Amino acid sequence: MIKRLFDIISSAIGLIITSPLFLYVVFLIKKESPGPIFYKAQRIGKNGKPFTMYKFRTMVVDADKIGGPSTAADDPRLTKIGLFLKKYQLDELPQLINVLRGDMSVVGPRPEVKVYVDMMTDLEKSVILSVHPGITDLASLWNFHEAELLKGSADPEKTYMEEIRPEKLRLQQAYVKKASFFFDIKIIFQTISKLFK
């Protein structure tokens, strides 16, 4: 209950504080390319329930039909403003709306697409999907700029599956097992620190 109350208050305050930036990003996206402002990503949430996760659109329209779900920093599908947004994690800002709605939490395992969830073992699902997915967690701190790690890869999807996903799953499970309100606060401060760095 404390976690949910914290999520509501922090996401509401976050949306109010960042509203000028929010509007400016909306303007830049519409100025550069036609199409929607948000990318509505289908993700799997707590207890395996699907939900729509909001992100600022960083790619050309219908990018998911051109390539896979993993995005490298040099992905040709990225728009100029999209490249900037991903570099500074600003494309994640609309997920505060998901937190306010109760689809997500500020801290929790990053939500995955169904194809990756289907690859999880029953044990991994029972742990990772037992809590609400979040904007940041231990895996996010470890792999803060995933797109940069995938940059230059001949096969970003293969690189993700072999070099990133196994450790990501381990850290997501580690977070759930250690989760507490004060641990969440620690992760939030570490995330903010990384953003400023």
Helix share, percent: 40-55%
Structure summary, number of beta strands: 4
Any idea how many domains? 1
Low-confidence segments, given as residue ranges, are none
The residue-averaged pLDDT reads 89
The number of helices is 10
Structural class, by secondary structure, is mainly alpha
| Major beta sheet summary | 2 strands, antiparallel
Instruction: Give the DSSP E fraction (strand runs of 2 or more residues).
Output: 5-15%
End-to-end distance, in Å?
A: 32 Å
Strand order of the largest sheet: 1-2
What is Rg?
Answer: 16 Å
Shape descriptor reads globular
Helix and strand run: HHEEHHEHHEHHHH
Molecular structure report:
- This protein has helices at 2-17, 19-32, 80-87, 95-101, 114-119, 122-128, 138-142, 146-150, 156-178, 181-196, and strands at residues 38-44, 50-56, 105-107, 134-136.
- It is mainly α.
- The strands form two sheets. The chain has a two-stranded antiparallel ribbon. It has a two-stranded parallel sheet with strand order 3-4.
- Helix 1 runs antiparallel to helix 4 (95-101).
- The model has no long low-confidence stretch (mean pLDDT 89).
- Strand 1 and strand 2 (50-56) form a beta hairpin.
Concise overview:
The chain has ten helices and four strands.
Q: Can you give keywords for this protein?
A:
single chain; 197 residues; mainly alpha; two-stranded antiparallel ribbon; two-stranded parallel ribbon; 10 helices; 54% helix; globular
Produce the secondary structure layout.
Layout: H1 2-17, H2 19-32, E1 38-44, E2 50-56, H3 80-87, H4 95-101, E3 105-107, H5 114-119, H6 122-128, E4 134-136, H7 138-142, H8 146-150, H9 156-178, H10 181-196
Parallel strand pairs: 3-4
Antiparallel strand pairs: 1-2
Helix pairs in contact: 1-4
